[in-house]
Amino acid sequence: MQKLIILIALFIFQLISSQEKPEVLEEVKVKKVTKTFTNKNGNVQVDIANSIYNSVPNTIDLLAKLPSIQVSPDKESISVIGKGNPLLYIDNQKVGINDLNALSVEDIKIIEIITNPSSKYEAEGRTVILITRKFSKKEGFQMTLSEVVSFKKSYNNYLGLNSSFKKNKLEWKLNFNYNKLNPWESHRIDYQIPDADIISNYDVTAYTKRRQFIFGGGMFYKIDEEDYFSFNINSKLQNDTFGIDTQTYNKQKDTENNILTLSDNNNGKSFINSFVNYSKKIKAIDAQFFTGFQYSNFDQYLNSLVENNINETQFHLAQDRKQKFNVGVFSGRTDLEKKFKNDSKLEFGGLFLSAVAKTDFQLFDYNANNTTISNYDLEEKNISSYGQYSGKITGIGYLVGFRVENTDVVGKFKKDNAPLINKKYTNFFPKLQFDFPVGTSKSITLNYSKSIVRPNYSSMSQGSTYINPYFLYSRNINLDPTITNELASNFQYNDKSVKLSYYRNVNPVYSSFSYDNQQNILTFKEINFEKESGFNLEFTLPFNYKFWSSSNSLNFTLNKIEDKSALFKESKPYLYYYSNQTFKLPKEYSISLTAWGLTQQEDGVFERNAKFIMDFAVSKTFFKNWNCTLSYNDIFRNTIYNENFTINNISSNARYLVDSHEFSLAVKYSFGKIKKTEFKEKNIDDNSNRIR
């Protein structure tokens, strides 16, 4: 703590001393001022590399600070307001949440939120979050060391090292991060089961000691102006040891019990992702060819020893649980892009994906004195192809595209002869878009799209979490994908836009309860609801003036969820608002103030509370190579999630507390020898845009 106080004092001293009269400059350099936020047709692009956002310690927390993006309390899923779960891309490759955890913020150049993706992307999701990584245009060697000290309920530390080396057409990149974290979380659920005459609640708190090793490397070789070859590998190793304390009250008819449940848990996760890309200009037909291959593997184990103390007697061992989960995914894709003289463009390609997931579950029940062993395997294969043609007729832009996907899913317990899950389906996803220019500064865009959201592989495993003798969190091996149809229109005026959309979802995935009256256990798991529909009206209003950059969003949503198992209540519109104000001041100072919030949400089944979150950060560059950032996140301690619903005649009132109130200090030092090169390199954005 003393070191932190000294660092803060030095920072304040530098701030005061910088107001003194400057010396006469021997050289004047003109620096290009870049916009942090830009908006076109409702797609928001954020410059990470040249903004205060590059000091955020990890990619998930970085995304949580961007407009319309919501991160779940456990940081295991991402959603976009009014759009659901997005499709995630790093450069030319589709990725998942584990890839983001293994990606260093220092490697990120730009993040773009694409609200109307083309047929080139997989049909999975109505929104794409595209992350473009940095590539150097200058020769030489550069290394960046970073250190972040974070104070929440406990102390957290992030240490990072990033390096790059470029010589002529070849560039190498390496990164290593070690994070020592101590997250805290808590939640409470009050529920009633009238059919069984049960009134119960529990209050659970978890304290975790987490160690993370994140490392990666890559090679980019520019064959010539149009061709390149690249290889990248990223990995994350994580170990958690944590205790869970649960206080439970349960009343069934005239029987009341107060139970204290303690569990010791050891959780290990390892993830590795590698991909190879090759791009070639076929001069004979004047077309751009791209192919890429990717392999990812995620491995997790969770060992839990649980004991209960009923009515203040003494602790007795309840269960010894051992769970393992592994999934390996291999995919390959090919794209071909041909431009014609009339500025029209033909694009087509295909993708192959094969995934194998294995779940091993072993449970020893001390009360029954028996052991349960279960092994479940899931295999999925997906083959898809797409075609897309775009151009202009009398000034009106058009895009016509389609995607066809064939999926086979087989799930089987090893002890069974026949598969439990055997699904084969083919889906057709059309795409239409028309752009009408109105003068030189305005345009109107109309589009229709159909998309799919598939549950992740861990959601379809047989994993579960013991809370108390009456309550269990569980996965669901029977989840089906969600199909979405959407109509949207967008009006663009300079860099400001208004977008209106209507969507309809079949088989949306939400949480549900099921009660087993034989075992007297309530299970909480995700299921497919019948349908969901709604309207979105979104205003994107950026503003820039000299040193002041402002990004503002307003999103009005009316959402209705329906299912015969749920008690349907009134559906009411709610508002999401976001505002970021960034000031780039003299003496290399930057100040950022971000505020976002939601009004109360009522979507027919679920009622969720209103919230307001505010973050503040100030950054200063010293001696060109040093950067220091002070951040104060969730200033008013408002990251609290309340949720009420009734399903299967079981009513629930839940409250989740997230440890996001944070004060942090980030220090970054860069050094190396960089020089100009005569080799002309095409902007890497062109390579990432080719898959839109």
Short description:
The protein has about 700 residues and is mainly β. It is about 5% helix and about 65% strand. It starts with a helix and ends with a helix.
What do these coordinates show?
This protein has 692 residues and is mainly beta. The chain contains 4 helices and 41 strands. It is globular. 32% of the residues are buried. Residues 1-32 and 676-692 have low confidence and may be disordered.
Low-confidence stretches: 1-32, 676-692
Q: Mean pLDDT, rounded to whole units?
A: 89
**Per DSSP, what share of the residues sits in E-state strands of 2 or more residues?**
over 45%
Number of strands: 41
- Helical run tally: 4
Q: How does the major sheet shape up?
A: 22 strands, antiparallel, barrel
Distance linking N and C termini: 48 Å
The level of helicity is: under 10%
Q: How would the global form be characterised?
A: globular
Radius of gyration: 26 Å
By secondary-structure content and strand pairing, the structural class works out as mainly beta
